[in-house]
Design a protein that fits this description.
Helix content of chain B: 10-25%
Number of strands of chain B: 6
Largest interface: A-B, 45 and 45 residues
Distance between the termini of chain A: 41 Å
Oligomer: heterodimer
Order of helices and strands of chain B: EHEHEEEE
Largest sheet of chain A: 3 strands, antiparallel
Strand content of chain A: 25-35%
Number of strands of chain A: 8
Number of helices of chain A: 5
Strand content of chain B: 35-45%
Largest sheet of chain B: 6 strands, antiparallel
Structural class of chain A: alpha+beta
Shape of chain B: globular
Structural class of chain B: mainly beta
Chain lengths: 149, 123
């Protein structure tokens, strides 16, 4: 995978540390209905084109016709391309997720996105307040040193 | 986070993690020799990495970040934790979308400070 474009920091990674707040999708979200997230397909209906010349299209067609339970009309059909119109007020085919109530994880790591050359162990703060306090103290010290020149 | 028009948008729900990389502040007082001066000049080095899930709803992450590559405006990135806020004037350097093996579409947006001031938390 291509790396994201970044400005190269002037400091070396061993002089850096990273304060992170994480709420991974797998653990910090729950499935949600279309109604809950006000999904546009649910609100206004949607159009879908399936290609019956492909295995995927045929499988989609079978599923929509016999199993999906969604109301639709065939708008157009030519050269194996079928356009279906689904009315609103029925669940779309996407999976929606919304944040659950689990608190985020607050970590302090060594180094930065380039790595952690000193292999500083990652610490997880039990409370956001402690993470904030450490972050605040670090930034205040930096500011003092910066202003002192 | 600001969109390219300078309008603040709340994109918290799209973000799975964010990181602030900042120089380690040393406690000791160093004499003002050459290396100390150099180190002081680097103190404002500060970068942010935002990671999230693709959301093309109006005023959410895709709407805010989609023109990162075509605009060069400074954006305010703000976070609030326990009543304290950290506001940063940043240049977002990329908006990289990735489709994972599980089909999930996620993004990464790195940013760097635009104004050189040390970001500090304030009530």
């Amino acid at each position: 995978m291509k790396k994201a474009s970044r400005a190269t920091p002037l400091n070396r990674p061993e002089n850096m540390q990273t304060f992170e707040v994480a709420a991974p999708k797998a653990t910090h979200t729950r499935p949600a209905t279309c109604e809950e997230v006000e999904c546009p397909q649910y609100l206004r209906g949607w159009k879908m084109v399936i290609d019956l010349n492909t295995d995927l299209g045929r499988a989609q067609g079978q599923y929509i016709k016999f199993s999906a339970g969604r109301a639709y009309v065939v708008e157009d059909q030519r050269d194996g391309l079928v356009t279906l119109l689904f009315s609103g007020n029925q669940p779309c085919f996407r999976e929606h997720r919304v944040p659950n109530d689990r608190p985020a994880v607050y970590r302090v790591k060594g180094g930065d996105f380039r790595g952690n050359p000193l292999r500083t162990p990652t610490r997880v703060h039990k409370k956001p307040e402690y993470w904030l306090e450490e972050f605040q103290e670090n930034q205040d010290r930096l500011k003092t040193q910066f202003e002192r020149g | 986070m600001d969109d390219s028009g300078g309008n603040a948008r709340d994109i918290r729900n799209d973000i799975t993690n964010f990181e602030f990389s900042t120089p380690r502040a040393v406690q000791e007082t160093t004499g003002i020799d050459k290396s100390a001066m150099e180190r002081l000049l680097l103190l404002a080095d500060f970068s942010i990495t935002l990671n999230g899930v693709f959301n093309d709803a109006a005023a959410f992450s895709h709407a805010v970040l989609k023109d990162v590559g075509s605009t060069s405006v400074t954006r305010t990135i703000s976070i609030t934790v326990s009543g304290q806020s950290l506001n940063n004037e940043c240049l977002v350097t990329d908006y990289q979308l990735t489709r994972g093996d599980d089909g999930a579409l996620t993004w990464t947006a790195p940013a760097v400070l635009a104004d050189g001031a040390v970001p500090t938390w304030s009530p």
